[in-house]
Write a structure and sequence with these properties.
Number of helices of chain A: 13
Largest sheet of chain B: 9 strands, mixed
Order of helices and strands of chain B: EEHEEEHEHHEEEH
Shape of chain B: globular
Distance between the termini of chain B: 11 Å
CATH topology of chain B: Alpha-Beta Plaits
Number of domains of chain B: 1
Number of helices of chain B: 5
Helix content of chain B: 10-25%
Number of strands of chain A: 14
Radius of gyration of chain A: 25 Å
CATH class of chain B: Alpha Beta
Distance between the termini of chain A: 13 Å
Radius of gyration of chain B: 18 Å
CATH architecture of chain B: 2-Layer Sandwich
Oligomer: heterodimer
Number of strands of chain B: 9
Order of helices and strands of chain A: EEEHEHHEEEHHHEEEHEHHHEHEHEH
Shape of chain A: flat
Helix content of chain A: 40-55%
Strand content of chain B: 35-45%
Chain lengths: 376, 239
């Protein structure tokens, strides 16, 4: 049995194209027999990580790069300027000790070696690896491979602990993600629309002899919709990945903030689709995580006065109750942030403000996490 | 024998058997390795933990609502935005509903049933981004696998039932381990490599199995969708 924190978000986006396929169309999926707008889970996870980068201490965040030798060599040179000449070589030794294969980059000549895939390293991991490399160089001893591997396994950053890490060469270094994010889909049938645009050539327009035709024209595909977004955090896994209940609670708070407030950046300069969630529902559970997307399998219909939003909230609330009544699965705690005030919202949990939300989630989860730590 | 029945439904599922490099495919029905892996995850087993006891389980699936394959075009960049990663295509099965049956020892299956109701690791329909939108287990049945898959009510969504205008019952494809079909009844079969031998990422390994294909009538279309409590009422104790 584990502790899960389910996050449900209802969010409307105006005309926008935050996540598109190779033909430039907003991504879509079929559900309940009709086409929906879709934003992939990967897209929103990246937006969440970028949000972390802006808001978190550097020590909590990781870098995800193939240029690992360069990254580590820079840190070695920072920590020991006298070794800057041999920093790249020392960095290579570290990755060799961890059995991570390195190769010359294809496009950049004379650049330091790269790993064959993106490696996710926390800032403190880079520092500690640099420390090991410097110590071995000073003592004139070979690197202790065990110590190197230990660093890779410990002190994971918040984002590595949440989103996981895969190391193809050495699966011992893998970190299983503690959070799971679903693809966001619209609560209603949503077709893509086309914006035909023309752009005026100012010089041509000024000229008396020229016609007034456009300098260029084209189409942009977009969609607007009310979306259901869902993520769940496995608290036990998060504690394991971060090594302490306190760190896990901190990561949970950060994730709640980041997942709710972030927005993928696709075509944002074109559409300025900066919206915030209309409603956030957080359920703390000790049975199983439950996505409430089933509420929208029957597509919601817009109401002339209230749009898709009220109907979406009502469907969400009714479905949550259906699940509770039929399966007898009740969350340990329910918290709601909503711009609307209705019976549907009240039925989903205790109303709180967003400013209080992550703190209240922490309070609800802390006893479950801390008691388990003491129990084990 | 005892059979554990699952209803696998959600906006998206992905059951990869032959994914290679940037082509992450899906089969048109849940794979044995995917479902057994999900049961192991529910019970809190790590990828490196032994799964010998699960290898004796027989597996079958009924396509109650076949769904549609959709492609997800996937790009990736380093977080600093500098280096692009290979483009990949991920295929998903959208809007599908399956009835899966796992046949085996009663004690083992009732333990797994309990684990599905209180999973240690969060469950997903083949890919981590596809969480199931409702509890998966329909409970245990005392029956042979093929019979259990034949007699369970149609699990399709209401809209899909309504779309079947014909008076005839819907013909659902059943794909089941060949061993669970009597020798004289065997016929339409094919081989597939999705028997989990080890989930250990260092030496992930799959064996072959023969799958027997059947078309069985389900339905007819009813106004009332399935009653989840029915599964609880029919719950059977191990003898």
């Amino acid at each position: 049995m584990s502790t899960f924190v389910d996050i449900h978000v209802i969010q409307s986006v105006p005309p926008s194209c935050v996540n598109r396929d190779d033909s430039g169309s907003p991504k879509s999926a079929l559900y309940g027999g009709v086409r929906r707008l879709r934003v992939s889970s990967q897209s929103w996870k990246r937006a969440t990580r970028l949000y972390f980068n802006d808001r978190l201490d550097a020590s909590d965040v990781g870098v995800r790069t193939k240029r690992v030798v360069e990254t580590l060599a820079t840190r070695i040179a920072e920590q020991a300027p006298d070794l800057s000449g041999s920093a790249a070589g020392l960095a290579e030794e570290v990755f060799k000790a961890a059995k991570i294969k390195l190769s010359a980059p294809r496009s950049r000549k004379d650049a330091p070696l790269e790993s064959g895939y993106l490696l996710f390293l926390s800032t403190s991991q880079v520092s500690r690896l640099a420390g090991l490399a410097i110590a071995s160089s000073r003592e004139g001893k070979a690197l202790d491979a065990k110590a190197v591997k230990k660093v890779f396994k410990e002190t994971n950053s918040v984002d590595i602990a949440l989103f996981g890490r895969m190391v193809a060469d050495d699966t011992d270094l893998n970190v299983d993600a503690a959070c799971q994010v679903a693809h966001a889909i619209s609560t209603h049938a949503a077709d893509n629309e086309y914006d035909f645009f023309t752009a005026v050539d100012d010089e041509k327009n000024r000229s008396e002899e020229e016609d007034a035709g456009a300098g260029m024209m084209g189409t942009i595909e977009f969609s607007s919709a009310t979306m259901y977004r869902y993520a769940t955090v496995n608290m036990d896994m998060l504690v394991e990945n971060l090594g302490s209940g306190e760190a896990a609670l901190h990561a949970l708070e950060v994730f709640v903030q980041g997942f709710c407030l972030s927005m993928p950046t696709g075509k944002q300069n074109t559409f300025a689709n900066y919206t915030l969630p209309e409603a956030i529902v957080i359920s703390v559970r000790d049975d199983q995580p439950i996505s409430l997307v089933g509420a929208f399998e029957k597509p919601v219909h817009a109401n002339e006065d209230t749009g898709y939003l009220t109907a979406s909230l009502e469907a969400l609330s009714a479905h949550a109750r259906t699940i509770e009544d039929n399966y007898g699965l009740r969350p340990r705690a329910g918290l709601v942030v909503s711009l609307q005030n209705s019976d549907a919202v009240a039925a989903l949990g205790e109303r709180v403000s967003f400013a209080d939300l992550s703190g209240r989630v922490r309070d609800a989860v802390a006893p479950l996490v801390i008691s388990e730590e003491q129990g084990s | 024998m005892t059979v554990l029945l699952l209803r696998l439904a959600g906006p998206m599922q992905a059951w990869g058997v032959r994914s290679r490099f940037t082509e992450r495919r899906t089969e048109l029905a849940p794979s044995k390795s995917g479902v057994i892996g999900m049961l192991a995850a529910a019970a809190g087993r790590r990828r490196t933990d032994p799964i010998e006891d699960l290898l004796s389980l027989r597996f079958g699936v009924r396509k109650d609502q076949p769904g549609t394959v959709i492609r997800d075009f996937h790009t990736a960049r380093t977080l600093d935005g500098k280096a692009p990663m290979p483009l990949s295509s991920r295929y998903y099965l959208a809007d599908a509903v399956f009835l899966a049956g796992i046949e085996g020892d009663c004690e083992l299956l009732s333990g797994l049933d309990e684990a599905l109701r209180h999973p240690v690791f969060p469950l997903y329909l083949g890919r981590r981004s596809c969480p199931p939108p409702h509890p998966l287990s329909l409970g245990l049945r005392e029956a042979d696998l093929l019979d259990a898959l034949r007699s369970e009510p149609w699990q399709a969504s209401e809209w899909f039932r309504r779309r079947q205008r014909s008076e005839q019952p819907f013909m659902a494809e059943v794909l089941v381990d060949q061993e669970s079909v009597a020798v004289e009844e065997r016929g339409d079969s094919y081989g597939v490599r999705d028997v989990p031998v080890s989930y250990d990422p260092r030496r992930r390994d799959y064996g072959f199995r023969n799958v027997e294909r059947r078309m069985v009538p389900v339905g007819p279309a009813q106004g009332d969708p399935h009653d989840p409590m029915a599964a609880l009422k029919e719950a059977i104790p191990c003898s």
